[in-house]
Amino acid sequence: MKNIDCGAPRAELVAFCCRGKVFLRALWLIPVLLFLASCGSAPDITGKWKEVGKTATLEFSREGTFKAVDNQGMAVSGKYALSKDGQLRCEIQHEGKAVEVVILTVSIREDELTLTSPGHAGAEHYKRER
């Protein structure tokens, strides 16, 4: 039988396998990073907010309740829930009536809260007071 020198191809094969293992080890990081990114928290809306250029205020507690006073001084309160994607669900209890549910989209940039309502063109802007 003839001896064949496999030294050079074997070294290339080992190097290729090592690169493949490194690649596979690094590949598992992608789903881990995606999972960690999806675990982000909802924006922090707790505190008191005042509508820019107007008198309306909103106040959100850590316990999931809110108080709102509009520009005419009418006050409402209720419960709220905020999802990680910025969807705000407010349940307003009107005296002697059924609960009204309002869904809004929230975005916060520094100390400004922007509320938009699906199907409505405008947005409301609030500044954090505390």
What number is the mean pLDDT?
80
Helical amount = 10-25%
Uncertain residue ranges: 31-38
CATH topology of the largest domain: Lipocalin
How would you sum up this structure, described in words?
The chain is an alpha+beta fold and 130 residues long. It has 2 domains: 32 residues; 82 residues, Lipocalin (Beta Barrel). The protein is 24% helix and 39% strand. The protein contains 2 helices and 8 strands. The longest helix is centred in the first third of the chain and has 21 residues.
In short:
The protein is α+β, with helices and mostly antiparallel strands. It is built from two helices and eight strands; from the N terminus they run ααββββββββ.
Give a topology summary.
Elements (H helix, E strand, L loop, with lengths): L6 H21 L1 H10 L8 E5 L5 E4 L4 E5 L5 E8 L4 E7 L5 E11 L2 E5 L6 E6 L2
Antiparallel strand pairs: 1-2, 1-8, 2-3, 3-4, 4-5, 5-6, 6-7, 7-8
Features:
2 helices; 24% helix; 2 domains; single chain; Lipocalin; 130 residues
